[in-house]
Amino acid sequence: MSPDAxxxxxxxxxxxxxxxxxxxxxxxxxPFIYAADSAGFPYGTKSEAEIAARVPALLGRLVERYRPRLxxxxxxxxxTIALSVVRAALDVPVVGTVPTIKPAALISKTRVIGVxxxxxxxxxxxxxxxxxxxxxxCIVIRHGxxxxxxxxxxxxxxxxxxxxxxxxxxxxxxxxxDGDRIDTVVLACTHFPLLEAELAAAAPHPVTxxxxxxxIARRVAHLTAGQDWPLVAPPxxxxxxxxxxxxxxxxxALAACGFSEIVAL
Length: 265
Ligand code: DGL
Hints:
265 residues, alpha/beta, four-stranded parallel sheet
């Protein structure tokens, strides 16, 4: 394993940056590559078939080109739909991101948990399985929002975010039957931790938010423990499947996360 072999993070957009930050804190000299499928964004409103075809094909090209030591699918939508297909297709370790229902069930006192994800994620059988396995004594209320994904991207472009827009996007979670008893909300989309402060301010009552980023960072660090790294991390590369003015507007946020070079796939 060359010390220069990178860790490749993948998402539809910039949501995966919420996973990059805690991972970098654990492995500071690791070379990082961030790939965003901007041409396919957003994933949450796409069909299972589209995602299951798109994600393994793109990751195959990325792995061939950049030879990463590990791939992290920093996207709940892609992971809950395509993780097993990607693992079967690639010859490198693949870490996925799935809704953190188990830790939510461990801390919920009211036994009513919210799962806030994309429309595609919240309808996945994977979420049924996690709920049955880890939260069978809880009421699990799922809510999908494409708007929050759009708002998270806008925030990272430096645009102002209207509090009312966040309120409207999460209203359905809390107005659902038993929604007034939710005390723990799983942020089941990697874009949403980027809006955690706004979500906390918009929630109709105080709730605890949980997400998978710290656990994924630990998993990546564990799987790469003992491997050789460069003495100093090289500048990160951000790859977009389509370069446009939105990507250009993201460059300060990307640079702040260590990705100073932006290229097209
Ligand atoms: N960040 C992604 C997720 O975790 C997907 C957002 C989207 O493209 O809809 O689900």
